[in-house]
């Protein structure tokens, strides 16, 4: 991970000596008629910036569309070498989330040009509140800074060395600084998750994923245990083991615990992630086209590891257990077969585990998660959230705009949904319920691991609900959103790091205040 230095200051824009200063603008035109011209309006009160840009703004060359950029060299009256205008789009639609993207756009403008230092002006006037914008801007800068070309031998490290945010001095400086610092932690944590997702299957095996999580935990003081086959057998995790048995790589059960001092009662949150480091489909093997993408089938697990990193640093007053079920799904002489019966982990050793008829070995995510959810409950989780690249059907349903969210508990869902206003991530709720449970009944055992052609994202969620039982539970299907298929001005093509920010906000909603 490139170590981008960050700094917050309250200086006048014209006094800042830097390679590039980025200033945001909105389109203030409210007339939507055919002859209405854009009215690009700078979100600064700095007179020198106005003077330096008046000619180009009058020219109509810059319309302040979302993530549109325009560069000026040697702006008169400024100490900065370059001035970059970045559009936020129509004034009425500009939000903190536009600011996050615009910061990423400024960083991604600088990078290919070899500019390694920049200052962004925190937008004045319309985008409120300032502290939320400060957090979003830093997050966006980190997100924009990451490129996935790790293994190119001609790779030139163009990561930004120094990102500065210049806030107007009249703001509440303490709360802006507070949110700025949070933005650093959250942006770095999201990038940590993305860098894990970016690793190919041969470099990041379940064991290596466990080591990476373990190193992070040790550095930040999280309790951590990494288990493998023996422990899975002890716990009778028959569903998880059935996926791992076809691979030469041993599975990893990653358990991270955050226990804030003095918090001994109240909720215990279980964060459960799917960590399939490569998904071939197993014996129900996937077609070759695009199979290389299945290295990102551990994105849910990576998101939970990233969220645990942010939690360790932000220290919310609530206990959290992170569980990642990591395995490789491979075809092999020892691999499980369609028709096999597996016995999932029992909640308590005296009870029998549920029996699962394997219809399709490519529906492996729900198998590892079933045991992960049961384990979280056994460890005392009172509320559970899972994240997984679970189904292609979710991508068919929601496209690559929204991820899916499912829940057996409206209150837990409402907390999550409220957090989206802060995280800026897009999730759309889909149903679960007893009517759907009919679709995964097995003739030979308790349930089967696929529900047929229709409602595939829902029957997958329904499968998980069987294991959550009466524990309030949320399931995030991020299959379509974990990988950015087409580069955007503010994010590279590759891993997105989705769910880190939303899971974090959900966790923080449970914080107890003394
Ligand atoms: N990892 C895949 C889901 C996936 C698809 C993730 C596309 C990212 C992009 C999952 O393990 C899988 O193979 N699901 C099957 C389930 C089916 C066999 C019931 C699917 O969606 O086709
Ligand atoms: Mn699969
Ligand atoms: Zn999978």
Overall mean confidence score, pLDDT: 97
Q: Can you tell me the number of structural domains?
A: 2
Bound molecules: ligand BES, manganese (II) ion, zinc ion
The CATH superfamily of the largest domain is known as: Zn peptidases
Poorly predicted runs of 5 or more residues: none
Beta-strand percentage? 15-25%
CATH topology of the largest domain: Aminopeptidase
Query: In percent, how helical is the residue content?
Result: 25-40%
Q: Helices and strands: which structural class?
A: alpha/beta
Give the CATH architecture of the largest domain. Answer: 3-Layer(aba) Sandwich
Q: Summarize the main sheet.
A: 8 strands, mixed
The count of helical stretches stands at 14
Q: What is the CA-based Rg, rounded?
A: 24 Å
Instruction: Please report the distance between the alpha carbons of the first and last residues.
Output: 37 Å
Shape: elongated
The spatial strand order of the largest sheet comes to 8-9-11-10-14-18-15-16
CATH class category label of the largest domain: Alpha Beta
Number of strand elements: 20
Quaternary structure type? single chain
């Amino acid at each position: 991970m490139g170590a981008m230095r960050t700094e917050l200051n309250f200086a006048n824009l014209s006094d800042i000596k830097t390679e590039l200063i980025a200033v945001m603008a909105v389109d203030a035109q409210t007339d939507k008629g055919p002859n209405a011209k854009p009215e690009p309006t700078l979100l600064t009160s700095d007179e020198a910036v106005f003077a330096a840009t008046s000619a180009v703004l009058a020219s109509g060359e810059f319309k302040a569309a979302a993530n549109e950029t325009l560069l000026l060299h040697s702006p008169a009256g400024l100490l900065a070498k370059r001035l970059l205008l970045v559009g936020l789009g129509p004034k009425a639609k500009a939000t903190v989330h536009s600011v996050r993207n615009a910061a990423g756009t400024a960083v991604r403008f600088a990078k290919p040009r070899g500019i390694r230092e920049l200052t962004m002006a925190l937008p004045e006037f319309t985008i409120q509140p300032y502290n939320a914008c400060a957090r979003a801007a830093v997050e966006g800068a980190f997100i924009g800074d990451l490129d996935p070309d790790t293994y190119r031998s001609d790779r030139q490290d163009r990561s930004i060395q120094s990102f500065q945010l210049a806030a107007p001095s009249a703001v509440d400086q303490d709360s802006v600084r507070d949110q700025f610092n949070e933005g650093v932690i959250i942006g770095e944590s999201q990038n940590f998750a993305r860098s894990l997702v970016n690793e190919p299957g041969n470099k990041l095996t379940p064991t290596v994923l466990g080591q990476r999580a373990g190193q992070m935990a040790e550095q930040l003081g999280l309790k951590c245990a990494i288990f493998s086959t023996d422990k899975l057998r002890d716990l009778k995790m028959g569903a998880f083991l059935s996926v791992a048995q076809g691979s030469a790589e041993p599975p990893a059960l990653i358990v991270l615990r955050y226990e804030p001092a003095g918090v001994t009662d109240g909720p215990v949150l279980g964060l459960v992630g799917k960590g399939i480091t490569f998904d071939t489909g197993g014996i129900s093997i996937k077609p070759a086209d695009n199979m290389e993408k299945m290295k990102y089938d551990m994105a849910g697990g990576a998101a939970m590891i990233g969220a645990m990193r942010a939690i360790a640093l932000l220290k919310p007053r609530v206990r959290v257990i992170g569980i990642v079920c990591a395995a490789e799904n491979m075809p092999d002489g020892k691999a499980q077969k369609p028709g096999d019966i597996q016995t999932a982990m029992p909640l308590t050793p005296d009870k029998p585990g549920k029996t699962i008829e394997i219809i399709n070995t490519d529906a492996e995510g729900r198998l590892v998660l079933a045991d992960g959810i049961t384990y979280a409950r056994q460890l005392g989780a009172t509320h559970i959230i899972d994240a997984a690249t679970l189904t292609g059907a979710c991508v068919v349903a929601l496209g690559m705009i929204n991820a899916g969210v499912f829940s057996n508990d409206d209150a837990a869902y409402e907390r999550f949904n409220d957090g989206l206003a802060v995280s800026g991530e897009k999730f759309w709720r889909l149903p679960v319920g007893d009517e759907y449970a009919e679709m995964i009944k097995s003739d030979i055992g308790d349930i089967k691991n696929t529900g047929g052609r229709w409602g595939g994202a829902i029957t997958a969620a329904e499968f998980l609900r069987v294991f959550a039982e009466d524990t309030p539970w949320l399931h995030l299907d991020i299959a379509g959103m974990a990988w950015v298929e087409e580069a955007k001005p503010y994010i590279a093509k590759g891993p997105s790091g989705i769910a880190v920010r939303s899971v974090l906000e959900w966790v923080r909603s449970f914080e107890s205040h003394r």
